[in-house]
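TEACHING EXERCISE
Course module: macromolecular assemblies
Task: Read the component lines below, then compare them to the predicted structure of the full complex.
Student: A.B.
Group: 4
Components provided:
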Amino acid sequence: EVQLVQSGAEVKKSGESLKISCKGSGYIFSNSWIGWVRQMPGKGLEWMGIIYPGDSDTRYSPSFEGQVTISADKSISTAYLQWSSLQASDTAMYYCARLVSSTYYFDYWGQGTLVTVSS
Amino acid sequence: QSALTQPPSASGSPGQSVTISCTGTSSDVGGYNYVSWYQQHPGKAPKLMIYEVTKRPSGVPHRFSGSKSGNTASLTVSGLQAEDEADYYCNSYAGSNNFAFFGTGTKVTVL
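Instructor-supplied answer key:
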């Protein structure tokens, strides 16, 4: 069974750094793209970027380029999303999901990680 | 480029049908048969309901169907049930330079 399990909720202050994780199981993690999706409180879904764990090829949505860093460690089947300096506007739920890259849809999703940033 | 346009809300009584539209451009929805739809219940992760415009993943009820005409894709829920009350988002590929976009989301209410 394919599963993506994300790290737990985080409460941070503005200016702090943060790295959240997404661990895959039930499939060959290296062979599928993983995407990150943001959902701000009461708002819709937004693509942030994707990574191919096999070679760490990473692509960012223009809105998030330079704002976050996506990485992966294929040896432990885990993808990461990190911030070097959080802002209050980063408060959101963040989902990882497995991307079927041939036709660009997410077939499995993590449970989400809630990030709360206080100013 | 911005999000694909969906109506904010749609509703129907149990047993009725509801159709949600997802309007883009010839560079995304109209240019590729790579439209997918996701259902999201409050406090839950999104769930894939339709991919490649019309295909249903295993386990998704047959009352969910997808279609596309020009730059507009649609999701139809036939025979509405109480558990179909949720937010629905479309998504479309927009080419290697433009990435992909979600729709603005539609809240479906079962009256």
